[in-house]
Amino acid sequence: MHTQSIDKWQHDHxxxxxxIKSGERKTFIVIGITAATMVVEIVAGILYGSMALLADGxxxxxxxxxLGVAAVAYVxxxxxxxxxxxxxxxxxxxxxAGFSSAVLLAVFALMMGIESADRFFNPVLISFxxxxxxxxxxxVVNLACMFxxxxxxxxxxxxxxxxxxxxxxxxxxxxxxxxxxxDALTSLLAIFALLGGKFxxxxxxxxxxxxxxxxxxxxxxxxxxxxxxxxxxxRQVSSEVSQKVRDAxxxxxxxxxxxxxxxxxxxxxxxxxxxxxTQDPQPPDDYKDLIPENLGIMHxxxxxxxxx
Length: 308
What we know:
alpha+beta, Alpha-lytic protease prodomain-like, Alpha-Beta Plaits, 2 domains, 8 helices
């Protein structure tokens, strides 16, 4: 059989990963804003002696590093999208970058907690007016970055009327957003602590807010780790979504699904393998046409077992 005779049954595994994503553009814009703000906050935190402000600046540094990881991931996934050595394209690079960013979040949360605890026992003189000014600037910058990165870091699936069991989740953008959110939180806590210290002489609030911020960042980190690790380990999607595929196949003729695996291979991109037992076997494309279109399934493998 000549190669050209099977061309109609062959396809690539790019799945549009070679196109520039909106998240990539947003990430590069925020990197520029973050790099400048990071330097200002770290220097101000050291000069004015505020742990909450220094923690804000340090986390801004982690945020800049994470954004750098996100930017590299976007470029790598796009440029290598057509590389045949990636079985299902480069979609999982997105989740790998998100996982790496979540690890960075956890590390910096630990650093924030340790440094803040140390300030309880080794307090330093705080220049409240200057520290408050820089914290407000940091908060404004973080809120602007959150707006640029577009809040939730994901878009809904194509069908806005189904129950949203599926979301097109850009873990890379989601991770970047969480870093910005963490920065905004530490900026807000720094302002709160500094005001308490200035007007009520509650200097202990500064390291306390650093610990509170560390705890919140750690929680976000663990959530992102769970989400991205599930994709990297090919965890099955929810049973509800799998059941939709099963019901669609078994609703026709005497089809019975004996085995089904449905997993995510990229942002909003899913792959499925289905084993079907039937008395009246049909061409594989007939069964593929039965799969609901609003589930984001871009790659399907059908195995058919005739049963007398």
